[in-house]
């Protein structure tokens, strides 16, 4: 490790302290953290042990689709460093060592900034699904830096050098040194782009962000500037890039030595990922006034609203910055994450589209051995696993149905039970049989059928992802292709097939929940038609605390558990273990949490269906959970009220695990 490379830690610690002092963040427990790798001194690891973790989900490898891969920096007391590669076939619950990427060019070791990527299309002679790893080859004396690119065509078992992308000087952030850092990979239109931080033009730019492109992975085009500020001392760095809807792309980066000081997080949005240099920059400023610092990472998911959701991690704290307004600079909000903090945390959207994996390798300059771990953060509403739905095609307005073993569209509504699988994908079942692709085909136009369940079969599992307009796309895990009305037919009986994503209305489906899942297992969110979630503010465990509403559900106090009670259910907060209680006829009509009391009818609730929504009725008072005054505001209180069927009284109950 070279201290000068990460010399901004002092700044980072000041920012962390300021953020914690301004807005204390509670520790989240809902979905993690889960350990991927734990170095030990006995195995030869030295402080900080590990760092700079990255992860991907395979989408272009047939039966292996849905497999997770991770790599990260490791620090050993002796020998050349290498990037270990781990895989998980159960959505991250368990991990297995696969191989390591070693420096076959210089013998120095693959020391810093690993990036792992799956090719979505052919690149030269490399087929779609090839795994790539890039990173820095750096000698022990730090006299040079070189970005090397390796490829694997056997799911990470072996790695071969593709090319040297670029070379730089001494590995130090101090001027006038000329190193390069932090490669990031992206493929578009048959070209692979490598973005990286570049100090080689040091007379004019202490550091800038640049990219190069290749059509074969071996020969590289000229260096192109993406972020280069006029002031020589400016140091934009640590870029990441994600695709947005409407042909747009977002790049996030830290802007060290910015005019306002520190290393605040900035971003650019461009219509071409090769032309960020022509785009304007914006600083991320959150709704609470906080200004995230350092080492950002960006992803986008189509779920969460008319423009999907942009999610940005940063190294100045554990919270996420989210934006559901297409990157509007005035619309960034802070959301608590379940993942620990760390230097350059990575993000990855999970197959359900509403969950993001936050992965960390720990802090820089740790005086202990870091753990590589991750947690899952819910950033948008999702399906209720185990619930029953009807699926209506957005073009034909007919319903997904069956004719024997064939899958067709029909006027009648067929009930489908959608259930999350260990891979993170879903099965879509009716009558005990599951939606599948005939013969396991990966071809466009392959018909669909019902089959006896075969647990773990990729051809029987689907990513069911909400789109910005509220409809859903169902992508087969094996083929990656979408369920569609193949012939754009509008007559009952037309067969259903799979096809590559063509952004057609015949590939979009409206899901209506017609039956709740088993309520006595798992954790649930309870969301009203105002879009807000029932919660206990700040995770209070005090009896008598009044329930209220909040704009997201990602913490234990946003989650609820149901137990049967006297013909209804007791609804218990996942954090406090206390039961929702109707205090009517007390003044204020508050819905509070109190200790579980088997004899208290004011703790017994029934769920009353109303279309695809639910009214939650108290057995003791006969009144309903409502938000005071119908307020859309965060922290507006939950009260007991007569039946008025307003948006604040209609609820969607979703099982999330």
Automatic annotation (TrEMBL):
* PANTHER family noted in UniProt: BNR/ASP-BOX REPEAT DOMAIN PROTEIN (AFU_ORTHOLOGUE AFUA_7G06430)-RELATED, BNR_ASP-BOX REPEAT DOMAIN PROTEIN (AFU_ORTHOLOGUE AFUA_7G06430)-RELATED
Task: Name the SMART domains for this protein.
Answer: RICIN
What is the protein name given in its UniProt record?
A: Ricin-type beta-trefoil lectin domain-like
Molecular-function annotations in GO: carbohydrate binding
PROSITE patterns per UniProt: RICIN_B_LECTIN, TAT
**Signal peptide annotation:** 1-28
Q: Does the keyword Transmembrane helix apply?
A: no
List each copy of the Ricin B lectin domain by range. Answer: 423-563
Organism of origin is: Amycolatopsis tolypomycina
Tree of life domain: Bacteria
Looking up SUPFAM superfamilies in the UniProt record yields: Ricin B-like lectins, Sialidases
Supply the alphabetized keyword list: Lectin, Signal
Q: Give yes or no: UniProt keyword Secreted.
A: no
Q: State a single Pfam family of this protein.
A: RicinB_lectin_2
UniProt cross-references to CDD domains, sorted A to Z? beta-trefoil_Ricin-like, Sialidase_non-viral
């Amino acid at each position: 490790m070279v201290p000068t490379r990460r010399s901004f830690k002092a700044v980072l610690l000041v920012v962390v302290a300021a953020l914690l002092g301004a807005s204390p963040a509670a520790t989240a427990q809902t979905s993690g953290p889960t350990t991927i790798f734990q170095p030990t001194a006995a195995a030869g690891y030295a402080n900080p042990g590990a760092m700079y973790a990255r992860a991907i989900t395979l989408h272009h490898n047939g039966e292996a689709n849905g497999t997770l891969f991770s790599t990260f920096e490791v620090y050993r007391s002796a020998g050349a460093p290498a990037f270990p590669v781990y895989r998980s076939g159960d959505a991250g619950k368990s991990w297995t060592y696969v191989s390591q990427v070693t420096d076959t060019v210089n013998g120095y070791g693959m020391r810093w900034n690993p990036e792992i990527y799956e090719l979505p299309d052919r690149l030269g002679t490399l087929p779609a699904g090839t795994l790539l790893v890039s990173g820095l080859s750096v000698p022990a004396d730090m006299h040079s830096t070189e970005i090397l690119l390796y490829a694997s065509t056997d799911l990470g078992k072996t790695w071969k050098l593709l090319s040297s992308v670029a070379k730089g000087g001494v590995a130090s952030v101090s001027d006038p040194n000329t190193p390069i850092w932090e490669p990031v990979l992206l493929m578009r239109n048959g070209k692979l782009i490598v973005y990286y931080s570049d100090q080689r033009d040091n007379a004019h730019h202490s550091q800038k962000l640049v990219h190069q492109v290749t059509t074969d992975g071996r020969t590289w085009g000229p260096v192109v500037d993406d972020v280069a500020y006029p002031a020589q001392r400016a140091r934009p760095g640590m870029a990441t890039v994600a695709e947005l809807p409407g042909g747009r792309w977002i790049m996030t980066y830290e802007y060290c030595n910015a005019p306002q000081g520190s290393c605040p997080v900035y971003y650019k949005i461009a219509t071409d990922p090769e032309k960020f240099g022509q785009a304007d920059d914006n600083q991320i400023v959150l709704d609470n006034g906080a200004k995230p610092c350092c080492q950002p990472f960006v992803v986008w998911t189509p779920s969460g609203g008319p423009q999907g959701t942009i999610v940005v991690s940063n190294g100045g704290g554990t919270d996420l910055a989210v934006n559901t307004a297409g990157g509007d600079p005035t619309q960034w909000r802070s959301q608590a994450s379940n993942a620990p903090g760390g230097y350059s945390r990575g993000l990855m959207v999970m197959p359900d589209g509403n969950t993001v994996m936050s992965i960390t390798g720990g802090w820089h300059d740790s005086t202990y051995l870091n753990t590589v771990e991750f947690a899952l953060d819910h950033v948008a509403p999702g399906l209720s696993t185990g619930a029953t739905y009807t699926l209506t095609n957005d073009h034909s307005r007919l319903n997904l149905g069956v004719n024997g073993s064939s899958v067709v569209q029909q006027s009648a509504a067929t009930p489908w039970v959608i259930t999350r699988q260990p891979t993170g994908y879903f099965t879509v079942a009716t009558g005990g049989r599951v939606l599948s692709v005939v013969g396991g085909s990966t071809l466009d136009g392959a018909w669909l059928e019902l089959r006896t369940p075969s647990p773990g079969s990729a051809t029987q599992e689907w990513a069911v992802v909400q789109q910005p307009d509220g409809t859903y796309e169902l992508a087969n895990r094996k083929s990656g292709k979408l369920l569609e009305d193949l012939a754009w037919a509008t007559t009952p009986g037309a067969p259903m097939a799979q096809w590559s994503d063509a952004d057609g209305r015949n590939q979009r489906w409206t899901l209506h929940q017609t039956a709740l899942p088993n309520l006595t297992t798992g954790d649930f969110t309870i969301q009203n038609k105002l879009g807000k979630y029932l919660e206990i503010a700040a995770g209070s465990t005090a009896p008598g605390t009044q329930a209220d509403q909040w704009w997201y559900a990602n913490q234990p106090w946003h989650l609820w558990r149901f137990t049967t009670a006297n013909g209804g259910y007791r609804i218990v907060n996942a954090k406090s273990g206390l039961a929702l209680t109707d205090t009517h006829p007390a003044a204020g009509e508050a819905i509070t949490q109190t200790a579980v009391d088997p004899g208290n009818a004011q703790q017994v609730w029934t769920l009353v269906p109303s279309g695809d929504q639910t009214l939650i009725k108290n057995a003791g008072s006969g009144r309903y959970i409502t938000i005071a005054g119908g307020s859309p505001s965060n922290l507006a209180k939950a009260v007991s009220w007569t039946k008025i069927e307003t948006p604040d009284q209609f609820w969607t109950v979703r099982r999330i695990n």
